[in-house]
Amino acid sequence: MRGDLDETLARLARREEALRRRGTGDEADRDEVSPAVARRDGHGAYRLRGETRPEQVDPVEEVAEAVRRVVAEHPGLAVTLRVEHGGRAYPLRVAWTGREVTVGPVPAPPPPPPAWPMPPTPVPAPGQDREGPDPAARLAEMVRRDPSLLEDPDQR
């Protein structure tokens, strides 16, 4: 999925650059714009002119471009969205970066904070060997084997 997203974002960047060049009025740069892009004046303009839909338009790019235009009209606005197409999901973030609007992947969320309070962990007492059995357990086992250990030594 990540490769598809990177590919879509790269196509969006190329498209934005072509649209930017088309807006400058340079005739040499206009030749680099694809005929499908040069023919469209805006979102859905082909429908208004009675034309058929341009061939091979990526719907993810079209959605991202429409959101980018809205964000471009409102400085400081940022939009996070998830576009699903063909059984795949494309999480996108459209936001202002400096003086321009960029379309990119959604940043990874920060890791969750540790559970509080921290779960108790037994800490061995000083001089207690953690490797061997617990002394209280050892004493209980000895008494279980020989209950006479609990009798008064003078009575023996």
Describe this structure in words.
- With 156 residues, the chain is of the alpha+beta class.
- It contains 6 helices and 3 strands.
- The protein has helices at 2-24, 27-30, 35-39, 45-48, 59-72, 135-145, and strands at 78-85, 88-97, 100-105.
- Strands 1-2-3 form a 3-stranded antiparallel beta sheet, covered by helices on one side.
- Helix 1 (2-24) packs across helix 5.
- The protein is rod-shaped, with a radius of gyration of 35 Å.
Task: Pick out its properties.
alpha+beta; three-stranded antiparallel beta sheet; 3 strands; 156 residues
SSE layout:
Layout: H1 2-24, H2 27-30, H3 35-39, H4 45-48, H5 59-72, E1 78-85, E2 88-97, E3 100-105, H6 135-145
Antiparallel strand pairs: 1-2, 2-3
Helix pairs in contact: 1-5
Number of strands: 3
Model regions low in confidence, pLDDT < 50 over at least 5 residues: 26-40
User: What is the count of helical runs?
Assistant: 6
How large, in whole angstroms, is the Cα Rg?
Answer: 35 Å
Q: How is the main sheet built?
A: 3 strands, antiparallel
Distance between the termini: 81 Å
* Percent helix range: 25-40%
Please write the string of helix (H) and strand (E) elements. Answer: HHHHHEEEH
Overall geometric form: rod-shaped
Kindly summarize this structure in a few lines.
39% of the residues lie in helices and 15% in strands. With 156 residues, it is α+β, with helices and mostly antiparallel strands. α1 crosses α5 (59-72).
